[in-house]
Description:
11 strands
Amino acid sequence: MAFRSAVITFPGSNCDRDMAVALEQVSGVAPIRVWHGHAELPEDLDFIALPGGFSYGDYLRSGAMAATSPIMRSVVKAAERGVPVLGVCNGFQVLTESGLLPGALLRNANQTFICRTVELTVENAQSLFTSSYAAGETIRIPVAHHDGNYFADEQTLDRIEGDGRVAFRYRDTVNGSQRDIAGVLNEAGNVLGMMPHPERAIEEAHGGSDGRRLFEGAIAALVKA
């Protein structure tokens, strides 16, 4: 089975090419590139990625305007059908604003842009996206964000913790995220939002390749299925 993926580009996306290169390097098949103004996605997609950047310049609220783009109606429908959707950084913000994931991403607690490699703990190694990691494993992935402070009410936090939907957690305080949450899964496990950039950790020339296994595990599972 040939792996078929798509990378969505919004006005202000700046990591869409990085995401496309990562998917092609790992799968051997170039993803289709979809502009946010398109209304439909192919129904035979295996994987959808919402990349990082500053959609619409973050003028209203990070991800809020992108969440209303025409293509997001198709992304939501695909996610509801079970198609895996990965949102990284701004893509994570879009997923929360569109209602595909709970919570919100606020301004970093220290009010500064953070750009460095951080250590993450793999909290859930059973999802499609995390199956190539071991539970409790420490991995190193770059971050680059100004609005990565994950917030949700205590009831929501308790629920996602209890359901095992925290995928990754910062080992040290990075941006003020509640309970140091770095990545969250939806209830069905086919949508992952994360602030760190796995597409920037694909090969050792990047300074590390821990992000590659996220794509390798997901693609292997999907192709096998």
